[in-house]
Amino acid sequence: xxxxxxxxxxxxxxxxxxxxxxxxxxxxxxxxxxxxxxxxxxxxxxxxxxxxxxxxxxxxxxxxxxxxxxxxxxxxxxxxxxxxxxxxxxxxxxxxxxxxxxxxxxxxxxxxxxxxxxxxxxxxxxxxxxxxxxxxxxxxxxxxxxxxxxxxxxxxxxxxxxxxxxxxxxxxxxxxxxxxxxxxxxxxxxxxxxxxxxxxxxxxxxxxxxxxxxxxxxxxxxxxxxxxxxxxxxxxxxxxxxxxxxxxxxxxxxxxxxxxxxxxxxxxxxxxxxxxxxxxxxxxxxxxxxxxxxxxxxxxxxxxxxxxxxxxxxxxxxxxxxxxxxxxxxxxxxxxxxxxxxxxxxxxxxxxxxxxxxxxxxxxxxxxxxxxxxxxxxxxxxxxxxxxxxxxxxxxxxxxxxxxxxxxxx
Length: 410
Description:
The protein is an all-alpha fold. It has 16 helices and no strands.
């Protein structure tokens, strides 16, 4: 359905956007006031494109791929292979970023660039569906023993029969998560990342728009940034493997918020200290702020792919089958929705309180940012204790099962 939407958007919605979108005066007359909501409704086609893109990237990919990986990878294998999965995912932004820079942004106008982007998205979606079909077909023919053995080593209650991902509502997700401290802490990690990234990225992108007012220039910058993130992820992932394997799950879990906290200090300081930033009156300071924000966002995304994603996905492995499947579904629903939508809601409240300029509210965003990071680290420390306990229990059950099997053979 996602890729069908992108195809319809490119062929029907975007070319007829002016006919489909109401005028600002009409929306204002109906709502009785202007503001952010009126602007969103006036450009609802672009807003819909962004919403669908966010939902797909945060829910569909994570839900499908990582649930599939959790089904066929054991705890011992995950410490080695999960960071490598993240490394392979780092190749995607390299290719996508250079596609944007060298092809999409070279179009005559932004409309042509959007067409080139949506064609690439639909093509990639077709490839994903085909590859996923072939992988599942292969496992159905040859992988029953592999899946069964993996299930047995990860949890004694695991059922080797592959189950469909449950469709859980928000209420059901809350109810299920409230029954498990382990899952609540895991949700806190996901929420912590989603909220903290929202608080810094909105400031950084506001500065980028001041520095690159032309949409195609902005697009080229983001394309090069995405490629840089992919390259750094592929390089850092080698260290990520050893961090998790040598220093343990806890070190990998708290690395991302710790690094984010350190790099955000000069970024916030550059914005807060001094007169308001502007592309004309403060070009040098604006360039420094953009550079610091780019560095902070780059390292944040790199550590997220190299350490945060592997550690959070590893946390599901020692759970029983029901907690693993339903817990991941609930966290994906709540984490992705509450993280980004909650962060956006808080931003809107703060922006409206400061006259519609997010840069004027930087000090408030900074306080919220570090408050979220503190809660994130606290949850990671608490979760690490439970993770080690559950992992040790799984190992004991494996040893007991092995001894029982040896006695039967004797």
